[in-house]
């Protein structure tokens, strides 16, 4: 995989936003897979600036959601549908009918998971999927020991993930749902380009395991090693435990091969 080391989160956001803009110039109706959390915010801010300046047209793009809490009303401020509406759809001017996401309020959750898999397939698949990474190496909500062939499904969150996410719920872990719908690792790997952004020293162990460790279910993000076009963008702090950091700096610098290997 490509590993690009950047000075800080803002530089990573700008680099990835320009990759997304380049994709949209080549494929105006591209399907962009988006993630939530604080890490991708610099990407969305940089892409919004490009759209508002006229540097890129996003009017024909479609947006696909990576995961969703189970049981939170769709209009709950911390449902991922609400978060993405605030942070992605509204700033970018994306129409509601161009958005795809799993239904976390469905009575038949397995049915909702299957329906989302069908929707992704009918859309032609995801062209570029943004990913974050948990401190334990999870991507989406595929916790450690998830099947590397898994599809969109319901998952039970680990206690550590609920602790990590409590900051979005006024620090109250009791408000954090226990279950989520997430694209499976097998589903994620079907995207044509995977782009993972990680920042901060707290992600250094997970990044090292993802890039340089064995492909193993205990670190779900290590499955990116199996993908033909995966790009990992990290700041210096997140790159601190990479044994090949100097090689990555020399090889990729700030010019990753966004269009394919």
From TrEMBL:
The keyword DNA damage does not apply. Transmembrane segments: none annotated. Keywords: Allosteric enzyme, Carbohydrate metabolism, Hydrolase. Residues 10-225 form the Glucosamine/galactosamine-6-phosphate isomerase domain. Its EC number is 3.5.99.6. GO terms for cellular component: cytoplasm. HAMAP family: GlcN6P_deamin. Belongs to the glucosamine/galactosamine-6-phosphate isomerase family. NagB subfamily. This is Glucosamine-6-phosphate deaminase.
């Amino acid at each position: 995989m490509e590993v690009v080391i950047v000075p800080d989160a803002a530089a990573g956001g700008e680099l990835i936003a320009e990759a997304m803009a380049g994709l949209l110039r080549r494929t105006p109706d591209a399907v962009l897979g988006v993630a939530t959390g604080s890490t991708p915010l610099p990407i969305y801010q940089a892409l919004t600036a490009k759209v508002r300046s006229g540097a890129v047209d996003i009017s024909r793009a479609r947006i696909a959601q990576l995961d969703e809490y189970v049981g939170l009303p769709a209009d709950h401020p911390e449902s991922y549908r609400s978060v993405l509406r605030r942070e992605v759809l509204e700033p970018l001017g994306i129409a509601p009918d161009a958005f795809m996401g799993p239904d976390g309020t469905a009575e038949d959750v397995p049915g909702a998971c299957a329906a989302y898999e069908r929707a992704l397939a009918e859309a032609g698949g995801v062209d570029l999927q943004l990913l974050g990474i948990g401190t334990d190496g999870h991507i989406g909500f595929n916790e450690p020991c998830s099947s590397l062939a898994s599809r969109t499904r319901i998952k039970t969150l680990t206690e550590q993930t609920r602790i990590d996410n409590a900051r979005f719920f006024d620090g109250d872990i009791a408000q954090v749902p226990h279950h989520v719908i997430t694209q499976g690792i097998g589903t994620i790997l079907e995207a044509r380009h995977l782009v993972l952004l990680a920042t901060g020293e707290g992600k250094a162990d997970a990044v090292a395991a993802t890039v340089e460790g064995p492909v193993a279910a205990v670190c779900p993000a290590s499955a990116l090693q199996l993908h033909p076009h995966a790009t990992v963008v990290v700041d210096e702090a997140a790159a601190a435990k990479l044994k090949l950091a100097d090689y990555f700096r020399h090889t990729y610098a700030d010019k990753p091969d966004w269009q394919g290997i």
